[in-house]
Design brief:
The chain starts with a helix and ends with a helix. It is mainly alpha-helical. The protein has seven helices and no strands. The N terminus and C terminus are likely disordered.
Amino acid sequence: MALSFAAIAAAQPRDHLTDQETDLIRFHQQLDKRIDVFIKAMDRRFAIITGLEQAKTKKIDKEEPEWGDLPKGSRAQLLGDIASILDEAITNIDDVSRRDEKSPLISRALRKLTAAANGYVTQVKSMASQTKDADELSAIERVLQQAQQIIEVGSQLPPPSTDKKKSKP
């Protein structure tokens, strides 16, 4: 009986965000702020992978919940988390786009995510050349696929508006 419980526990998927990160996503209702949270969550994982663990993540808004402890996991798990977070960020942008395709938050969020994805591609490509682990290589491939999709869409954006009157009422 205990053996079957162990098999069920092992089969449950890993959450790609910590509980505190999920609370931050719920806290931020504006798309561009949510994308900031996704980017910081991915940056936290890259910091762990590269050995540059930061002590504390700065809050975007003083009212927001705490970021909590850094996520735990193997390199392959953390890379898998990054791929899943990229996917969730894409889904968030798609959802807003379906509801209001003229929202200025879409291009702002996509620009932020594209800039981050460009940096992630560089990081994971160097990791790919340094590992032979099949799980890590698979997770790296997923990150690259998600990041390339973001970069492709982001490269089709028109240049950002330089009209300062429209940015702040």
